[in-house]
Amino acid sequence: MHAAVVSATNTLVLNPDELGPDPAPGMDLAVTLSIGHLEIRSAGGTNAVALPIDRLRHIRALADERGLKVAALASPLWKWCRPEARPGRVDAFGFPAQVPPEERLGWIRRAFEAAAILGAPIVRIFSHLRVEPELTEQMASDPLLVKALGAADTAGVRLLLENEPVCTVAHAEPLLAILDRYHGQGLGLWLDVANLHEVGQATGDVVRALAPYVDYVHVKDYRPDDDGRVFCPAGEGVVPYVEVLPLLHAAHPALPYGLETHVRDAPADALTTGAAFLRSAIPGGVA
């Protein structure tokens, strides 16, 4: 049986590591903002899937003490390439980008163990890093995906694929192809709307096509600048949330919306502003 979504209503989710390596301040901010769910990605500068069991239990205890639930494990699975490949700049939050194929199943099992300890019903995955063409691996033909989906079902968690521009599956066409192929085996979509906008596809038609597969939404925003882009609070940038959010709500009246800011200066203020924006912009409101 596949894991259920977080709630019967729309929910906000906060990632504590947006405020720094210590998860406690981020959890305290969640309480202050009346956000009851967390997305765990890293702590102490180490990716959650690489943390020792006692550290994971400590994070779970910190959440339990505050009445918070872990909605998702934002794992780095499949945000990797072979050791002989040359990845570009990759933000993997304390996880190596080059992973030998023989070690990958172990990391998948470790992620499921971490999810169980944290109480996370969903686990994010990616789709292999785009590297040299002759060394780039393809997600749709990766036999490890089928094994992982079966193991996830046994473990009672759901694997959700994020559309990530540095990975092989970022545009709507390959996203729809892989989701259609593996959705029946439990694969869903961890939709990052800003990433979709970055590749020029955050349009009404594309969002409607992807919406049936969406089980989690990542929310961040940015504005163009001379160096490319600068991150800003959700609702203050160029990502067309005002158009996209009603389309997602029409397909799914109950979704988790994970606040991700990447704003380096005053991230707590950016998350506070983003939470207020989502509460006003999502039809039906959020818990």
Percent of residues in beta strands: 15-25%
User: What is the tally of helical segments?
Assistant: 9
CATH superfamily: Divalent-metal-dependent TIM barrel enzymes
- Kindly provide the radius of gyration, computed on alpha-carbon positions and rounded to a whole number of angstroms: 18 Å
Q: What is the distance, rounded to the nearest whole angstrom, between the alpha carbons of the first and last residues? A: 26 Å
> How many domains in all?
1
Poorly predicted tracts of residues: 1-6
Instruction: Write the H/E string, N to C.
Output: EHEEEHEHEHEHEHHEEEHEH
Mean pLDDT: 95
Describe it for me?
There is one protein chain. Helices cover 36% and strands 19% of the residues. It is α/β, with parallel strands linked by helices. The strands form 3 sheets. An 8-stranded parallel beta barrel has the order 1-2-5-6-7-8-9-12, surrounded by 5 helices. The chain has a two-stranded antiparallel ribbon with strand order 3-4. Strands 10-11 form a two-stranded antiparallel ribbon. Helix 3 runs parallel beside helix 4 (143-155).
